[in-house]
């Protein structure tokens, strides 16, 4: 496992993204094609951008590891915990004890699809998308378009994308997993 | 200024002058685009040829501007996308929303 530190400055996003991507290409050269490389860059840019929004002056750590042909990109920080405003509630982590596991929440969406989260317990959430193969785009569809893409982008670019809040330390962990090869 | 504009027949080409389309510049990008729309430009061709990447904030600004344009009877096309930006549009299905062309001239012909 290799750790990288993000200084939470906008100017650092792209250089660090390239640095980490180069590292991954070195450790898994034969498993990284153009598509995977794009997915890695995209996930890193959005993870780092997410930190800029919520970091609260704390540093952000990116951990990269490779196990059984699975690439793990983990972002750890002690900024503001995840908050999701659903249609009915504002969910703040950690969720109240007793939150039913396996509950599903709609994070945001539009006519092209919805970003959803599956609660594993009061501290863990796994993101997934439900997509719609829309055939016709009209003005109404465009007016209803979502304008928040960060978590959606990471979810679609990942094979697994999950969030965990660590109550003991107040740390936020976002983990993206990409299956490399077969 | 993020956008440098020049007329092309009945369109306005707005070339993005920055290399990184990120959160720090998304609001300014959106404000400049909305101003171009409010100034009565009916067809704005946004040229991304100098841009290395865009993030979710920048995409959000672009979508917001498209909504504003449609409600004003105007339209937006994008050109000069590199491979990563084009893939990002596809990832979030914005390739089905925006008119995407290789060049401004092609966007003009497709209008």
From TrEMBL, chain A:
Superkingdom in the source lineage: Bacteria
UniProt-recorded name of the protein: Histidine kinase/DNA gyrase B/HSP90-like ATPase
UniProtKB/TrEMBL annotation, chain B:
Ranges where the STAS domain occurs: 26-111
InterPro entries associated with the record: STAS_dom, STAS_dom_sf
GO molecular function: anti-sigma factor antagonist activity
Pfam family, any one: STAS
The protein's name: Anti-sigma B factor antagonist
């Amino acid at each position: 496992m290799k750790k990288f530190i993000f200084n939470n400055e906008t100017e650092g996003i792209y250089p660090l993204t390239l640095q980490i991507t180069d590292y991954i290409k070195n450790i898994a050269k034969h498993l990284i094609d153009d598509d995977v490389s794009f997915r890695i860059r995209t996930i890193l840019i959005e993870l780092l951008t997410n930190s800029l929004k919520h970091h609260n002056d704390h540093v952000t750590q990116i951990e990269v590891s490779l196990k059984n042909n699975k690439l793990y990109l983990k972002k750890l920080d002690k900024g503001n915990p995840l908050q999701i405003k659903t249609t009915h509630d504002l969910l703040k982590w950690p969720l109240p004890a007793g939150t039913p596991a396996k509950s599903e929440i709609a994070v945001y969406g539009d006519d092209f699809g919805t970003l959803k989260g599956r609660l594993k317990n009061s501290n863990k959430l796994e993101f997934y998308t439900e997509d719609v193969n829309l055939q016709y785009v009209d003005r109404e569809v465009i007016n209803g378009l979502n304008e928040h893409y960060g978590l959606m982008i990471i979810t679609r670019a990942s094979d697994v994308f999950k969030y965990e809040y660590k109550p003991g330390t107040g740390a936020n962990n976002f983990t993206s997993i990409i299956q490399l090869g077969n | 200024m993020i956008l440098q504009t020049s007329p092309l027949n009945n369109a306005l080409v707005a070339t993005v002058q920055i290399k990184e389309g990120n959160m720090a510049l998304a609001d300014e990008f959106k404000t400049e685009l909305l101003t171009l729309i409010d100034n009565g430009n009916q067809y704005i061709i946004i040229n991304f040829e100098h841009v290395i990447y865009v993030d979710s904030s920048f995409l959000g600004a672009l979508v917001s501007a498209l909504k504003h344009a449609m409600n004003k009877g105007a339209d937006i096309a994008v050109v000069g996308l590199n491979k990563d930006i084009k893939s990002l549009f596809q990832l979030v299905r914005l390739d089905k929303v925006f008119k995407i062309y290789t060049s401004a001239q092609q966007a003009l012909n497709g209008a």
